[in-house]
TrEMBL record:
Membrane-spanning parts: 6-26, 38-61, 73-95, 163-185, 197-218, 225-245, 251-273, 294-318, 330-347
Subcellular location: Membrane
GO cellular component labels: membrane
GO MF term list: carbohydrate:proton symporter activity
Keyword annotations: Membrane, Transmembrane, Transmembrane helix
Lineage of origin: Eukaryota, Fungi, Dikarya, Ascomycota, Pezizomycotina
Organism: Penicillium canariense
Descriptive protein name: Major facilitator superfamily (MFS) profile domain-containing protein
Amino acid sequence: MSSAHLGTLYVGRLFLGISNGLYLTYSATYLGEVAPTYLRGSAVGLVTFQTSFGALIGVLVDNYTAKYQSQTSYLIPLGVMFVVPVALSVGLLFLPESPRHYIRMGLDAKAENAIRILRGINDADRLIAEAASIREAWVIENAHSQTVRLVDAFKGDNLKRTALTLCCSVGQTASGVIFFSAFSIYFYAQAGVKNEFVWVMMSLAIALTGNMGAFFVMRFVERRILLSACSIINAAIMFIIAGVYTRLSTGSYLAAQILVAMGTLFTWVYGIGQGPVLWALTVEIPSQRLRSKTVGLATGCNYLFAWVATYSAPYFINPEALNWGPKYCYIWRVSNLLLGIWAFLVIPDVKGKSLEQITSSMIRNSQGKDGEAVAATEHCENGHCE
C-alpha cells in the first residue's frame, strides 16, 4: 500500500501468499480438531462459506472503487483486507489450543480444560474419557511410527490416507470453481452478458445460501453420496453450458441467459456439496500425527493445479487463441464426472465418526484385521461422544 514500485508489490504479494497458505492449512486443521464429531464436517465446510463471503465483499469493493482515478482505487480494497486478520488475531487470544495438540505434547490437564471450554463439558468423568480416547489413539498411531516427518505420510497405512487427502484437495480445482471464480466476469463479457459485475455479485450471493445450507445438509447426508451427487449435477451443468454455445452463437441473448442461470446454479451446487465436503475430507482423513503436514501438502498441491488451470484457461477461451469460449466447459464436465465417480467408489464413510475412530478404521483396513484401536474410542458409540 505504501509503494507503487513493481518490486514492492511482488514482495507484498509473496507475503500474502505465504500467510494465506498458512491460514488455510491451520484454520481448517484447527476447526477439524476442536469441533464436536456431529458438527465437524459442517464446521470445516464453513471454510467455503468464508471464502465465498470474502469474494463477494471483494467484488463489491472493487466494483465501486474502480471508478476512482487516484490511488484510493486500490488503497481502499487493500485497506478492507485488514479487517478480518485483525479480528482473527484478537479472537484467537481467547481460544484454547486444540485438545489433540495438548495430548501430543503430553499436557493432559490442559487438554481436558480445552475440551471443557470448547465443548461446554463440565462433567469430570466425561472430560477424562474424552482425553483418554484421544491419548489412546495417539499411542496406537505412535506404535507404528515414532517420527512426525512429511515422508511418513507416504509410508505404510498413511500412504492411502495421503493419496485420498491429495485427491480431495485437488478435487476443488477439478470441480471447475477456480475457473469460474477467476474468469467469470470476463467469461460473461465474452458471452455477451450485460452488467457482468452485477451478475457475478448476484451469483456469489446465491452461492452463499448453498454454503449456509451445507451446514445442515452435511449433518445428515453421507459425505460420499453428497459429493458424488453434486459432482454429477455440476457435470450436467457444464455440459449444458458448453452444448448451448455449440448450437447457438456467442452473441445470442438466449445463450447468455442460460450461461448466467447455469453459472449461478453451478456455484450454488458447489457451495452446498463439493466445496464443504472436499474441505472436510481433507481434514478428516489424515492421521492425527501427520494431519497438519498432510493438509498443508494437499493445499499446496491444489494451489499448483489451480495455477495450471488459471494459467491455461485464457488460451482456451480468448478469441485470439483457441476461441472456445463457454465451450471450454466440456473439459470441466469430464473432470466433474470423474470426481463424482471417484467419490462414490473410493471415499470412505466418516460421517458420525470421531477422528480417532477414523484413524482406527483406517489402520484396521490397511492391516486386514480387527484391532484393539476400537477400544480407544468405543465410548463414542453410546451417544455421549462429542
